[in-house]
Amino acid sequence: MNNKPADTESEIAAIREVVAAVEHAQRDEQVGAFVSQFREDAIWTTAHGKLLIGRDAIAEFTGTVLPGAMAGLVPSYEVVHVLFIRPDVAAVKVRQRYFSPEGELLTDMGEGTPMYVMSKEDGQWRLTANQNTARRD
Question: 8-131: which CATH number, 3.30.70.2750, 3.30.360.10, 3.10.450.50, 3.40.50.12500?
């Protein structure tokens, strides 16, 4: 069974663009830009285990936690693995770290290890079912 899209490289590049948009929206505390990356009926579980169902719930929660959250922080999101479940559905593992404005890794912030299940909707990759897990070492 071939689960990969015809042009795997361009699809992975498009997925990386969505992850970069999430990083940018978080860094600049842009709630609307963050929420726009989600499918309308998306599921999001926060790093602290809060379940959010649907873009409206994600927007409401994000609007209360994101503004002011990035003061003195520069988030970094790195795609570490993409598994195509179908050509239009992918499981995307991300490494989430925080840096100071001077570029110093803030190890006391820990790392996040989000798993994004993304689906391609009308030619655009969207966050569909997502778990943002804090790494505990």
Answer: 3.10.450.50
Helix (H) / strand (E) containing 126: strand 124-131
Q: Domain ranges in the chain?
A: 8-131
In whole angstroms, give the CA distance from residue 127 to residue 22: 10
112 and 137 Cβ atoms separated by less than 8 Å: no
Question: Within the chain, which residues score under 70 in pLDDT?
Answer: 1, 135-137
b/e map 106-128, b = 16+ CB within 10 Å: eeeeebbbbebbbbbeeeebbbb
What pLDDT, on the 0 to 100 scale, is given for residue 109?
74
